[in-house]
């Protein structure tokens, strides 16, 4: 128990800030951070002196000194005085006997309720819910004695006539039970009940689906806590579990059918849930039972309509991804037409800031490599510069119409026995100005692995001082924070060089290709969806920008937000013009109505499918639907398959489920009915490289039929279709010969899964004529394949900068999303996992010589697959150590045969010395 002054009491009485606490027979007084502790052994030790509104508290120390504090409201003062008297009373034997009786009565009364709850759960086959536990724990009386003092009271021989009497043994048993870890007791009770229920409900659990439920599925069905998350594996039967859960809830009388809703992400998924549930009810003789399956879209609209009397309108372009993209493109074009400033900044971002910078001091992803192995980045103007930071500066200069020379010879001869001829980073002929860009952090320090960097900087500065040439300096930190370009613009202006930002300036054909308009529009649409889902205003986004670490490319984020703000506003204005709202607005509006009590959720059991693809707005709506007492949320998903970030999905909703919902039982479905064990192991190790993913141990009883993973290399992209044809022909022959069994309906199903729609070209046009008697071949993008399965999966484009896509995880999205999923290419890694786990039998990957996907390389390095020719012949090639992607190939030139990197002209590396030797060129961390 604790007492402290009220705010007004402290002000009026001018009392210091204090806090008083009774600890057994001691009083503790904390005044302005200083603590006093005194044994309460007489009524003069603590005196409570009431005033007109506030009481004064006086504490007498052993040496007779009195500490006095003021400002305690009189009502609280009365309770303090009573508590002190109770302590004093307890000091007497009579008082201690009364105290014992009071303590025992409070303990036994609470234990009776706790035991009744436990017994009801056991006898009634009910789960003891978190809500019931918390309610009971909140009602648990707060005793004035510590556990040690309580035990002394119960074992005091001077107080009790016979410690071994039946009645006192019962009191000691009550004390023992009182001191138990009751959440652990209830957890054990729930576990025992669930194990017994597996037996008692076995007939139901075996018949509810076409096949008996596994123990994992059955336990998920039986677990009826208020909030349950089921982390499923690919092909583990999560839909069966959801349907069985609904049927079990109805059969046991826990929930009426009309009080259950199954939520899906689209109409097709909702229809499938409804049909599966109906087949289950028919199987159980519950044919008249109907459970509602709805989309989040339909439910949100219904809630708003019933609460307000008017359903809002959501334009089709705010729902459909393609229409939304087209609408946003139209809005951007309109903004460009109406504002030269917007158009300039939009194209500035595309041309200059389209790529993010690597962390300070880290290795960059080069565009190519010079003859000496030095990595380079190509600028808009076509130069090869040594770092991405220099590329940003060069492209900024080009966009602003500033004439410059890159690494032009210094106008004075500087070559000595210790230094080469000096070549400053940039020279501006119209200003007679040199420019050095130094790799320095906020503290003026270079990366640790940069040897003698400070000496080199000093030497360059000395050259300009000694020879009277003008030098402007910028740093890595300055470029990332935005100060460097401001400083450069100022220095150029001082030299009468005016900036002329021109979005219509013609791009040289040999220059780098800027970020396409379509990519920036797509990124903008994803950004808006996440910002709205998280209820972030433009002011909120600006505040998040200010909080970003300074070592990130903050200037890029700032410039993105500068163009995102008017686009965001134009999007909302377009909605307002049509008197509509978008999907994220609708979800948040519906959730707000429930949270504010303007509408009561009509559901006691809310079941959400594919929860790994939930946005935070969807998760908020789910939470609001079950916020009232006695409600239950059952969310099923697989965070390893969260691949819809572009549509607003936020994997942290799944990985941080307990934090998001406040409490949850987290169960796992780790037995799959799809992939062979070897493919489960390979795919699980691959996805688990990202430590943010929830750990699972996937098990399978599906037998392997030949190699589960193969990789075939073709020389050119044009050969891939023929390679796929040859693969299908071999499979066709094996099916005809009976070497491999037929599929479930007589035909095996083959998926050709592309990262992009253009990968459809890998499907032979004549497959049906050639192989249609044994198989069905279907092309899907990897995204579209989720939820589907086939006997065989073909991945036709496992090539560098193809799969994985390097544009999928743009860092600017961090402004609109919570922190968490920062693992490199995490979304692409999950997408590749989805592609692998569509296969019931085997996955065949096709790649190109010298263009292997880094994901394929990772599998090869892990020893789980070997790249061969389509015939199965081994491939013996030497990987280029410079670009690390190409391989050395034989070529003929004017001077005869030679070997060089297959990535030429992007990589000019040639092996020096005998075959097998390699050259590692230096890499710039800038």
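^ Assign residues to that structure.
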């Amino acid at each position: 128990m604790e007492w402290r002054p009220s705010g007004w009491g402290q002000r009026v009485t001018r009392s210091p800030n204090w806090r008083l606490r009774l600890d057994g027979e001691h009083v503790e007084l904390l005044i302005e951070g200083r603590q006093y502790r005194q044994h309460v052994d007489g009524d003069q030790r603590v005196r409570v002196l009431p005033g007109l509104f506030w009481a004064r508290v006086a504490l007498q120390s052993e040496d007779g000194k009195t500490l006095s504090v003021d400002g305690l409201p009189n009502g609280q003062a009365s309770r303090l005085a009573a508590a002190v008297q109770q302590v004093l009373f307890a000091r007497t034997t009579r008082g201690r006997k009364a105290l014992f009786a009071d303590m025992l009565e409070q303990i036994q009364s609470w234990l009776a309720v706790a035991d009744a709850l436990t017994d009801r759960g056991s006898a009634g086959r009910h789960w003891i819910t978190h809500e019931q536990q918390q309610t009971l724990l909140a009602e648990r009386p707060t005793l004035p004695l510590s556990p040690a003092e309580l035990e002394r009271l119960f074992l005091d021989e001077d107080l009790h006539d016979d410690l071994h009497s039946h009645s006192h043994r019962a009191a000691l048993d009550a004390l023992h039970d009182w001191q138990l870890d009751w959440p652990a007791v209830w957890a054990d009770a729930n576990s025992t009940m669930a194990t017994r229920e597996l037996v008692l409900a076995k007939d139901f659990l075996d018949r509810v689906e076409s096949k008996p439920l596994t123990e994992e599925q059955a336990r998920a069905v039986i677990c009826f806590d208020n909030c349950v998350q089921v982390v499923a594996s690919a092909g583990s039967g999560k839909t069966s579990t959801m349907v069985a859960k609904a049927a079990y809830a109805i059969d046991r009388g826990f929930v009426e059918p009309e009080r259950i809703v199954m939520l899906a992400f689209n109409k097709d998924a909702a229809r499938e849930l409804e049909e599966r549930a109906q087949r289950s009810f028919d199987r159980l003789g519950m044919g008249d039972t109907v459970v509602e399956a709805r989309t989040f879209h339909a439910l949100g609209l219904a809630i708003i309509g019933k609460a307000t009397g008017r359903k809002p309108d959501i334009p089709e372009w705010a729902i459909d991804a393609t229409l939304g993209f087209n609408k946003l493109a139209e809005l951007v074009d309109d903004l460009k037409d109406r504002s030269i400033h917007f158009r300039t900044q939009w194209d500035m971002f595309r041309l200059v800031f389209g790529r993010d910078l690597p962390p300070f001091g880290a290795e960059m992803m080069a565009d190519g490599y010079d003859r000496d192995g030095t990595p380079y980045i190509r600028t808009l103007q076509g130069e090869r510069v040594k770092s991405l930071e220099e590329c940003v500066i060069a492209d900024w200069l080009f966009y602003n119409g500033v004439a410059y020379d890159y690494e032009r010879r210094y106008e004075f001869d500087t070559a000595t026995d210790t230094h080469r001829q000096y070549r400053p980073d940039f020279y501006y002929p119209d200003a007679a100005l040199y420019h050095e860009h130094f790799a320095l952090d906020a503290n003026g320090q270079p990366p640790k692995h940069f040897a003698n960097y400070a000496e080199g900087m000093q030497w360059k500065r000395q050259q300009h001082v000694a020879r009277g040439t003008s030098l402007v300096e910028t740093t890595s930190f300055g470029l990332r924070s935005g100060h460097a370009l401001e400083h450069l613009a100022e220095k150029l202006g001082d030299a009468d060089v005016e900036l002329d930002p021109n979005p219509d300036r013609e791009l040289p054909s040999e220059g780098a290709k800027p970020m396409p308009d379509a990519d920036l529009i797509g990124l903008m649409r994803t950004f808006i969806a996440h910002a709205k889902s998280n209820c972030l205003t433009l002011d909120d986004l600006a505040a998040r920008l200010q909080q970003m670490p300074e070592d990130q490319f903050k200037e890029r984020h700032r410039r993105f937000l500068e163009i995102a703000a008017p686009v965001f506003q134009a999007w909302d204005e377009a909605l307002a013009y049509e008197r509509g709202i978008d999907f994220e607005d609708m979800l948040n509006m519906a959730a707000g109505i429930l949270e504010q009590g303007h509408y009561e959720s009509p559901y006691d059991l809310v079941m959400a499918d594919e929860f790994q693809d939930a946005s935070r707005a969807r998760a908020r709506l789910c939470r609001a639907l079950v916020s009232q007492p006695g409600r239950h949320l059952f969310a099923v998903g697989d965070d390893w398959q969260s691949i819809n970030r572009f549509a607003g999905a936020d994997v942290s909703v799944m990985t941080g489920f307990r934090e998001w919902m406040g409490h949850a039982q987290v169960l796992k479905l780790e037995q799959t009915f799809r992939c062979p064990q070897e493919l489960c192991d390979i795919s699980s190790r691959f996805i688990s490289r990202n430590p943010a993913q929830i750990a699972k141990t996937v098990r399978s009883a599906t037998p392997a039929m030949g190699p589960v993973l193969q990789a075939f290399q073709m020389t050119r992209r044009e050969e891939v279709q023929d390679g796929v044809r040859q693969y299908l022909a071999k499979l066709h022959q094996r099916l005809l010969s009976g070497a491999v069994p037929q599929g479930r309906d007589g035909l095996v199903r083959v998926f050709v899964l592309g990262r992009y729609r253009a990968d459809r070209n890998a499907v032979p046009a004549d497959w049906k004529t050639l192989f249609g008697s044994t198989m069905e071949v279907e092309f899907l993008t990897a995204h579209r394949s989720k939820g589907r399965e086939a006997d065989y999966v073909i991945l036709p484009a496992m090539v560098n900068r193809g799969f994985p896509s390097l544009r999928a995880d743009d860092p600017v999205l961090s402004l609109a999303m919570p922190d968490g999923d920062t693992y490199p290419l995490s979304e692409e890694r999950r997408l590749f996992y989805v592609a692998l786990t569509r296969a019931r039998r085997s996955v065949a990957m096709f790649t190109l010589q010298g263009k292997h996907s880094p994901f394929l390389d990772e599998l090869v390095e892990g020893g789980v697959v070997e790249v061969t020719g389509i015939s199965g012949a081994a491939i013996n090639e030497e990987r280029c150590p410079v670009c690390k992607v190409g391989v050395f190939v034989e070529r003929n030139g004017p001077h005869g045969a030679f070997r060089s990197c297959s990535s030429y002209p992007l990589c000019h590396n040639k092996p020096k010395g005998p075959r097998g030797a390699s050259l590692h060129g230096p890499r710039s961390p800038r």
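The longest helix spans residues 93-123.
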